[in-house]
Structures are given as structure tokens and as C-alpha cells.
Write a structure and sequence with these properties.
Elements lengths: L8 H17 L12 H12 L7 H10 L2 H8 L8 H33 L7 H4 L6 H16 L6 H17 L2 H18 L3
Helix pairs in contact: 1-4, 5-7, 5-8, 7-8, 7-9
Length: 196
């Protein structure tokens, strides 16, 4: 479901409906609401707050409506049995690789268009990604994946490549608020949490 977030709203809606319906059908009395489920809710709140400094308020509100899955999905987890940390890690890793693939697609597509038009604007902000989801939301999606790879204690060459691709995508999307928040999180991570 998370991988459908950068796609058109219809795909995310279908995936969310199927997941929530399945969660209700398979619900058990001994269900748990685990701490990792708070992260998507936190990102949803971050995106909701971004509406207040958006240049196009109405479009941003429509974008928020599309991301309701980031609120409903964690709530759906309340109705299903406890998920192991390994399963959650695998889900986040698959999502993160999915965002890398989206990033590669956007970057290659923009590069190809640039070679045809020589219009440098095609490499930045809203020209780099489709109107739906837009630069701000794609920045948030990419940031979530970026921090997954960044916090890995043992990184492979592939993990390092993913970090570079996502960092480049976030930089080119040029969302000042997201870049600023990412920068603060990176400083806090290396100051207080990263192994020395």
C-alpha cells in the first residue's frame, strides 16, 4: 500500500480499502497498537501542517485527502494481531526500495526530457515529479525512505547508492521546509543516536 502513495489516488484508495477491510475481517481480540505505527501518523501530521505554508492551499488540501491512507492504515493495525519487528522492518525496507525506484524513474525521465528541450527547470521542483503527488509530498515520501537507509548500522554498497539517489531527489525537489527538517533530523541522529 505504501508503494502506491506516489501513484494516482485511485490506486492508493483501492489498496487501502482492501487492507482495512481485510484487517476488520481478520481482527482478533488480542490486537495491539505498536509504537512503529505512530511514524506514518506523524508523517501525516507533518504533511497536514505543511498546508499552512503552501502557496496553493486548495491543491494542498486535496493532496492531504489522498494521504489519508497514512492515517487509516496504522489504525487498521489495531485490529490485527501483533506484527513482529522483523516483518515491520521488511515492510519499511520494501517501501524504501520502492521510493528509490520512483526516484530513479523521475530522475531518468527528467534527464531524458532535458536532453530534448535543454530546459533546466525540468530537473527541479514540480517539473521533476507529476502534479499528483507533487514536490512536497514526494519529498516526504523520499525522506522516510532516506532515513531508513541512513539508520542502518551495516550498509551495503546498494544501501549507499540508495541514500545518494534519495538525497539527490530530495534536493532537486527543492522543498525548503522538508530539506530543513531533514537536515535537523540528520544532525540530531548523528549527535545522539548514531553509533560512534
Amino acid at each position: 500500500i505504501l508503494i502506491t502513495l506516489p501513484l494516482k489516488n485511485i490506486y492508493t484508495s483501492i489498496a487501502t480499502i482492501l487492507f482495512v477491510a481485510t484487517a476488520f475481517l481478520l481482527s482478533k481480540k488480542n490486537s495491539h497498537f505498536q509504537k512503529p505505527n505512530y511514524w506514518p501518523i506523524a508523517f501525516f501530521i507533518l504533511m497536514s501542517v505543511s498546508v499552512f505554508w503552501s502557496q496553493d492551499f486548495n491543491s494542498s488540501v486535496l493532496g492531504i485527502q489522498k494521504q489519508l491512507s497514512m492515517l487509516f492504515i496504522p489504525v487498521a493495525f489495531f485490529f490485527i494481531p501483533k506484527t513482529s519487528k522483523e516483518t515491520i522492518s521488511n515492510i519499511i525496507r520494501i517501501y524504501s526500495f520502492g521510493m528509490v525506484l520512483f526516484g530513479l524513474y523521475y530522475l531518468i525521465s527528467a534527464g531524458f526530457k532535458y536532453t530534448q528541450t535543454h530546459n533546466v527547470n525540468l530537473l527541479f521542483h514540480d517539473e521533476l515529479v507529476p502534479y499528483d503527488p507533487g514536490a512536497i509530498y514526494m519529498s516526504v515520501f523520499a525522506s522516510f525512505a532516506f532515513f531508513h537507509f541512513l539508520q542502518l548500522k551495516s550498509k551495503t554498497n546498494l544501501d549507499h547508492a540508495c541514500i545518494l539517489i534519495l538525497a539527490l531527489l530530495i534536493f532537486l525537489l527543492s522543498s525548503k521546509s522538508v530539506i530543513t527538517i531533514d537536515f535537523i533530523i540528520i544532525i540530531c541522529y548523528y549527535s545522539f543516536f548514531a553509533p560512534i
